Amino acid sequence: MVLDGFEGMLEEKAIRLIQFEYNQGAILSKFLLRDFYEFFEQQGYRVARLFPDRVQFKSYGFDDEDFKGPNYLAIYTDDTQVLEALGMAPVHR
Protein backbone atom coordinates (compact mmCIF):
# COMPACT_ATOMS: atom_id res chain seq x y z
CA MET A 1 0.00 0.00 0.00
CA VAL A 2 1.24 3.45 -0.88
CA LEU A 3 0.64 4.70 2.68
CA ASP A 4 3.28 2.34 4.02
CA GLY A 5 5.92 4.19 2.00
CA PHE A 6 5.54 7.45 3.88
CA GLU A 7 4.39 6.27 7.30
CA GLY A 8 7.65 7.51 8.83
CA MET A 9 7.03 11.01 7.46
CA LEU A 10 3.54 10.95 8.93
CA GLU A 11 4.91 9.93 12.33
CA GLU A 12 7.35 12.86 12.15
CA LYS A 13 4.49 15.20 11.17
CA ALA A 14 6.46 16.17 8.06
CA ILE A 15 3.28 16.07 5.93
CA ARG A 16 0.61 18.63 6.70
CA LEU A 17 -2.13 17.58 4.32
CA ILE A 18 -2.84 14.55 2.13
CA GLN A 19 -5.50 14.30 -0.55
CA PHE A 20 -6.70 10.81 -1.45
CA GLU A 21 -9.44 9.29 -3.55
CA TYR A 22 -11.69 6.55 -2.26
CA ASN A 23 -13.43 4.50 -4.93
CA GLN A 24 -14.21 0.99 -6.17
CA GLY A 25 -10.51 0.09 -6.18
CA ALA A 26 -10.82 -0.17 -2.40
CA ILE A 27 -12.87 -3.32 -2.88
CA LEU A 28 -9.93 -5.05 -4.56
CA SER A 29 -7.35 -3.74 -2.11
CA LYS A 30 -9.61 -4.58 0.85
CA PHE A 31 -8.63 -1.23 2.41
CA LEU A 32 -11.92 0.47 3.18
CA LEU A 33 -12.68 4.05 4.12
CA ARG A 34 -12.85 2.96 7.74
CA ASP A 35 -9.23 1.78 7.40
CA PHE A 36 -8.20 5.20 6.07
CA TYR A 37 -9.90 6.91 9.02
CA GLU A 38 -8.24 4.59 11.53
CA PHE A 39 -4.81 4.84 9.89
CA PHE A 40 -4.79 8.63 9.71
CA GLU A 41 -6.35 9.18 13.13
CA GLN A 42 -3.69 6.96 14.72
CA GLN A 43 -1.08 9.23 13.12
CA GLY A 44 -2.74 12.40 14.48
CA TYR A 45 -4.66 13.45 11.38
CA ARG A 46 -8.31 14.39 10.84
CA VAL A 47 -10.16 13.11 7.79
CA ALA A 48 -12.55 15.27 5.80
CA ARG A 49 -14.51 14.79 2.60
CA LEU A 50 -13.67 17.24 -0.17
CA PHE A 51 -16.51 18.87 -2.12
CA PRO A 52 -16.22 21.48 -4.91
CA ASP A 53 -17.41 24.24 -2.57
CA ARG A 54 -16.48 23.00 0.89
CA VAL A 55 -14.63 20.57 3.12
CA GLN A 56 -16.77 18.41 5.42
CA PHE A 57 -15.30 17.14 8.67
CA LYS A 58 -17.32 14.33 10.21
CA SER A 59 -16.86 11.09 12.05
CA TYR A 60 -16.77 7.90 10.04
CA GLY A 61 -20.08 6.13 9.44
CA PHE A 62 -20.93 2.91 7.64
CA ASP A 63 -22.98 4.89 5.10
CA ASP A 64 -19.73 6.52 3.94
CA GLU A 65 -18.65 3.23 2.32
CA ASP A 66 -20.25 4.07 -1.03
CA PHE A 67 -17.22 3.60 -3.35
CA LYS A 68 -18.37 6.54 -5.49
CA GLY A 69 -14.95 8.10 -5.85
CA PRO A 70 -15.04 11.20 -3.69
CA ASN A 71 -11.82 12.83 -2.66
CA TYR A 72 -10.82 13.11 0.97
CA LEU A 73 -8.27 15.10 2.93
CA ALA A 74 -6.20 14.00 5.89
CA ILE A 75 -5.00 17.04 7.82
CA TYR A 76 -2.56 17.04 10.70
CA THR A 77 -4.70 17.76 13.78
CA ASP A 78 -2.42 20.44 15.24
CA ASP A 79 -1.93 22.35 11.98
CA THR A 80 -3.97 25.40 12.93
CA GLN A 81 -3.06 27.28 9.76
CA VAL A 82 -4.58 24.67 7.43
CA LEU A 83 -7.56 23.94 9.67
CA GLU A 84 -8.43 27.63 10.02
CA ALA A 85 -8.08 28.15 6.26
CA LEU A 86 -10.67 25.39 5.81
CA GLY A 87 -12.95 26.98 8.40
CA MET A 88 -12.35 24.34 11.05
CA ALA A 89 -11.00 25.01 14.52
CA PRO A 90 -8.15 22.77 15.67
CA VAL A 91 -8.82 20.03 18.19
CA HIS A 92 -6.67 20.26 21.30
CA ARG A 93 -5.85 16.92 22.87
What does the radius of gyration come to? 13 Å
Oligomer: single chain
The low-pLDDT segments are none
Q: Give the helices and strands as they follow along the chain.
A: HHEHHEEEH
What is the domain total for the residues? 1
Neighbour order of strands in the largest sheet: 1-4-2-3
Helix content: 25-40%
Largest sheet: 4 strands, antiparallel
Report on this structure.
By secondary structure, the chain is α+β, with helices and mostly antiparallel strands. It has one domain. It is 32% helix and 27% strand. It contains 5 helices and 4 strands; from the N terminus they run H-H-E-H-H-E-E-E-H. The protein has a 4-stranded antiparallel β-sheet with strand order 1-4-2-3. It is globular. 15% of the residues are buried.
